[in-house]
């Protein structure tokens, strides 16, 4: 028989799970693979190779996005395939519960959005994606940094001198920019759909806009426009 303490802990965990599920926004999502099977998926939060150093998603978690966002990835993939490259997705829709864990680890708004402030992360709305390139044989190509390397080397505008890395990053940004995505100043791999305001509640959109203007994080006239994490 379970002790009272064991039963209490089980009940408490159930309540916490229900609260976490209730906190997730009810949004339409599709599996990227069902939209374009040629896009490579490697969700980094399904394993230990990430900021947390451990899996935050269960094994077999699909890469999900809002349908419009997924369709724009199809366009980006078609563009890249003309040059014998492909998209590789490192993250897509991210539950708020996972965002909260990342915030506790980083506690730095330059890299991780506070899920309790403003709109939180655009990943939790299904309108942001973390992406890189592979070659036609699905081998990773040289890029400025690895995923979740939260250093100046991961900036949107490449600071290094390697011409191959520079050309790869420029190709990825061109593919995503032509397909209707903006980029993030501090993370070259992070992209958000250009009409993101359509999917975020008005009051939270205003908070994001004010914070962006105050911090001078947005700029226009570029296919890789800056937005929030």
What does this protein look like?
The chain is of the alpha+beta class and 229 residues long. The protein has a single domain (27-214), classed as Muramoyl-pentapeptide Carboxypeptidase, domain 2. It has 6 helices and 7 strands, in the order αβαββαβαβαββα.
Which stretches of 5+ consecutive residues score pLDDT under 50? 8-22, 210-229
Structural class: alpha+beta
The count of domains is 1
Specify the CATH class: Alpha Beta
- Radius of gyration, whole Å: 18 Å
Kindly report the CATH topology.
Answer: Muramoyl-pentapeptide Carboxypeptidase, domain 2
Question: What is the level-2 CATH architecture name?
Answer: 2-Layer Sandwich
Shape: globular
Strand content: 5-15%
Largest sheet, spatial ordering of strands: 2-4-5-7-6
**What's the overall average pLDDT, rounded?**
80
Q: Compute the separation of the termini in Å.
A: 47 Å
Major β-sheet annotation: 5 strands, mixed
The percent of residues in helical segments reads 25-40%
Number of DSSP helical runs:
6
Oligomer: single chain
Order of helices and strands: HEHEEHEHEHEEH
Structure summary, number of beta strands = 7
Features:
229 residues; alpha+beta; Muramoyl-pentapeptide Carboxypeptidase, domain 2; five-stranded mixed sheet; two-stranded antiparallel ribbon; 7 strands; 34% helix
What is the secondary structure topology, with strand pairs?
Elements: H1 4-23, E1 30-31, H2 32-35, E2 40-41, E3 64-65, H3 67-81, E4 85-91, H4 96-106, E5 128-135, H5 163-178, E6 181-184, E7 187-193, H6 202-214
Parallel strand pairs: 2-4
Antiparallel strand pairs: 1-3, 4-5, 5-7, 6-7
């Amino acid at each position: 028989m379970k002790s009272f303490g064991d039963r209490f802990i089980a009940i408490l965990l159930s309540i916490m799970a229900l609260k976490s599920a209730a906190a997730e926004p009810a949004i339409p999502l599709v599996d990227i693979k069902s939209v374009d099977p040629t896009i490579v998926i490697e969700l980094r939060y399904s394993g230990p190779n990430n900021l947390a150093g451990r899996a935050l998603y269960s094994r077999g978690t699909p890469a999900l996005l809002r349908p419009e966002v997924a369709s724009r990835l199809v366009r980006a993939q078609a563009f890249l395939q003309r040059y014998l490259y492909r998209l590789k997705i490192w993250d897509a829709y991210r539950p708020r519960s996972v965002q909260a864990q990342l915030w506790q680890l980083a506690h730095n708004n330059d890299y991780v959005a506070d899920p309790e402030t403003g709109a939180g992360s655009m990943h939790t709305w299904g309108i942001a994606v973390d992406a890189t390139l592979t070659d036609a044989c699905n081998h990773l190509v040289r890029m400025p940094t690895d995923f979740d390397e939260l250093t100046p080397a991961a900036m949107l505008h490449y600071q290094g001198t390697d011409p191959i890395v520079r050309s790869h990053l420029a190709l990825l940004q061109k593919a995503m920019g032509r397909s209707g995505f903006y980029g993030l100043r501090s993370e070259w791999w992070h992209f958000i759909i250009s009409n993101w305001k359509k999917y975020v509640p008005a009051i939270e959109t205003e908070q994001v806009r004010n914070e962006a203007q105050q911090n001078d994080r947005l700029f226009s006239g570029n296919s890789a426009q800056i937005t929030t994490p």
